[in-house]
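User: two proteins, same treatment. go.

Assistant:
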Amino acid sequence: MRWVYLTVIILFVVAIVLFSIQNVQSVTLSFLGFSIRTPLAILTVVVYVLGAITGGSLFAALRKSIRATRTSRPTA
C-alpha cells in the first residue's frame, strides 16, 4: 500500500510541475488589501506546499484524536 501512496504523490507532484512550467505568465493576487504580482508557476507551487502542510497537519490531528479516543474508552 505504501507504493500506491508514493505513486499518487509522485503523480500529483509531476502534474503540478508540468502545470507550473506551462504557466509562466504573471498574475496579481489580492488578499485583505495586500496585492502581489507573481508568476503563476510560483503561486501554484506555494499553494501546493501550503496545502500539503495543512493537509498533513489535519491528518496528524485526526490521527491523534482517534488514538486518544480509543485509549480513553472504558471497557465493558
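Protein 2:
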Amino acid sequence: MGKLQRISQIIGLFLGHGYLAVLASGHIYKGPFKGFCLPFLSCYACPMAIFSCPIGSLQHFMAIRTVPFLLFGFLGLVGLTLGRMSCGWLCPFGFLQDMLYSIPGRKIEIPRALYNLKFLSLALLVFIIPFLTGAPWFSKLCPFGTLTAGIPWVLASVRTAETAQPAIALGELGPLFVVKLVILAGFLVLFVKASRPFCQTTCPLGALFSLFNRFSMVRLRVAEGCRNCGACRTRCPMGLRVSHEANSRDCVRCLRCTSCKYVSVEIGFADLLLGTGRKDAAKNG
C-alpha cells in the first residue's frame, strides 16, 4: 500500500504543478485549466500550477461576496464519494509531510484537542475574514503557498507577460513575507517531528472534506473479532485507533490500516444505510 500511495501522491504533485514550460519561458500558465479546481491543495500562484486551488477559489468568492454554487457542488461530490481520501492519496503537501516525517529522529504526537483548530481555520481564514476584508487571508499565510509560490516568485525571477520584468523584486518584500517564512519554517520543522500536523490541525480543505467522512461512499469497516491490538494506530498517519474510530472525520483514507485482516474498505452506501459499520465498531469498543 505504501508504494502505491507514493506513486499516487507523485501523480497528484505533477497534476497540480506540472507546467514545466515556465522553466524555459519564465511565464506562468494562463490557459483554460486555471478555471478548474483539484480536490486537494494546489496553489494557484505557483509558477508551475495548471489548476486552481479549491481553498483559494473559496476565498475569492467570499471576498467578492458571491456564492460559488458550482464549486460547492464539486467539493460536495468529492466529499460524498471519497471523504478525505484525496488528502491521503493526492495532496502534494501531505506527500511532503509524509516524506519529512520519515527522517529518523525523536517523534512527538499532536494533542487531539488541537485537531479541531482546522475548523477554526476554515471558518475564519477562508469564509469570515475574506468576506469582511475582501482579501484571501488563508492564502496570504498558507505555508504551502509560501513554499510553492511565494519563494519561487521571489527567487526564480518569474516574469510577467505584460512587462517581461520580474513580478516581485526583493526590495518590495514586506513584513508579511517574513511572517510567511516563519510559518513555513515552523511547519517544516514540525513535519519532521510529528505525523501530518498540518492535516491534523490546520488544513481547511481537510476540515471541509472531513464533514463527509462518516457517510461517504468509500468507507472503512472493522470486522467482528478485532482484538484491539493497536497495530492500526501505529500505521495511521493521523494517530487514530481505527478499531474505535473507523470513518472518523480525521481519517485521510490512506488505507494503511487495511493491512490488518479485520479492517477493510467498503464502497457504496449499503453499509451506511444498514448501520453495520457502526455495529462492528461498537462490538470492538
